[in-house]
Amino acid sequence: SLTIGIVGLPNVGKSTMFNALTRNNVLAENYPFATIEPNTGVVPLPDGRLPILADLVHTEKVVPATVTFVDIAGIVKGASEGEGLGNKFLANIREADAICEVVRAFEDDDIVHVNGKVDPTDDIETINTELILADLQTIENALPKLEKDLRGKKIEQSYMDAVKKAKEILEAGRTIDEAASAGEIGKADVYDLHLMTAKPFIYVFNVDDNELANDELKAKLAAGVAPAKAIFLNAQFEADLTELDEADAREMLADAGLEESGLDQLARVGFDILGLQTFLTAGEKEVRAWQIHKGYTAPQAAGVIHTDFERGFIKADIVSYDDFVAAEGSMAKIKEEGKLRQEGRDYVMQPGDIVEFKFNV
Ligand code: GDP
After folding, report:
1. The ligand 1 atom nearest the CA atom of 19
2. HSE, side-chain direction, 13 A CA sphere, residue 10
3. Which residues surround ligand 1 with Cβ inside 6 Å?
4. Residue 342 belongs to what domain range?
5. Going by CA atoms, what residue is nearest to atom 6 of ligand 1?
6. Distance, CA of 49 to CA of 326 (rounded, Å)
7. CA torsion, ordered 19, 21, 22, 28, to nearest 10 deg
8. Residue 57 within a domain
9. Is residue 350 in some structural domain?
């Protein structure tokens, strides 16, 4: 499954946040694919629709989609030069599909900052510089063979142009993700290089309570990383939340003036930047959110449930979540009102689709 790698300088609250995430863990029994390793956390994608559906179809079993986080220890200045943990660190990032960068904004004199002062912008630059330097190294290493392949007409000039463009962007101290968002380069054009800064980024600012309430500060920090997504959370508070039962946690959130936890926000945004979306099934056996890539067609989505469903795909009976709830889950009513759609092979799955696939075995 796709993973999000958590990176950041030492002492910014990564472990605190990761441990809170893993306490939020879903039951592994539902996820045979997720061999849970100590540095891997499989987190449920928060989805308030599932309990409502479960109520309507009278089932106890609810299976959410999940987001997988990997804690990548130890970025330091010089990581790109392969010092110490550097190589292992970079190898771990290469394996992740998206990068979650944790940045310290909270002030606490008892907790040493590696650079001597709390400066989120500076910290982001430190980390991104290491990733950018490593990507430049990748390009430097690839260039001699690419030049040769170009002379031998094994690659197109347009590919070489894209590689040179990527090099320029990196040399200017920018990530490919950012430049791609600005429309300056297509990620697909340099996909073969597997550059780290071409992965989607989320920034998590670990803030204290005062900062969390300071909209001006948050807007400023968010603008500094835009168009990448920024999330603001208090890692210590999130850790405390996960120690509570659901009712108490909800109360503590409400007392803090928050609608959902920072970890839930992180799971949601992470799922989205991985390019994933869900569709739903709702039956007596279980209510379930299935994860698919955005843009999947109905047969591809069917294949996520079972490969036989894809092979023998006939059609998909689909009702939207809103229509399902409006009809209180009555299929008779849904059909009567013409809200049940029959979709074929070319149908692209939409968020909120509740599906029953018809297939030949
Ligand atoms: P890591 O090195 O990035 O994994 O950071 P840790 O999670 O180990 O946190 C470093 C120290 O900062 C620990 O003593 C934490 O208890 C503390 N810490 C983490 N998050 C917060 C926070 O939001 N506020 C405060 N005041 N301290 C925190």
Report:
1. 7
2. 11
3. 8, 10-16, 106, 108, 111, 206, 208, 234-236
4. 295-359
5. 13
6. 13
7. 180
8. no
9. yes
In-domain check, residue 321 = yes
What ipTM was predicted for this assembly? Answer: 0.96
CATH for 332: 3.10.20.30
- Asked whether residue 241 is assigned to any structural domain, the reply reads no
- Please give the C-alpha separations between residue 191 and each of 161, 177, 279, in angstroms, as whole numbers: 13, 12, 28
**Neighbouring residues of 12: CB distance < 8 A, sequence distance ≥ 6:** 102, 103, 104, 123, 206
**Mean pLDDT highest for which of 84-88, 107-111, 136-140?**
136-140
Ligand 1 centre distance from Cα of residue 100 (Å): 16
Domain count within the chain = 1
278, 65 contact by CB (below 8 A): yes
Q: Give the pTM.
A: 0.90
Q: Which residues contact 243 (CB under 8 A, 6 or more apart)?
A: 23
Give all strands of the β-sheet with 313-320 in edge-to-edge order: 62-63, 287-293, 276-282, 353-359, 313-320, 341-343
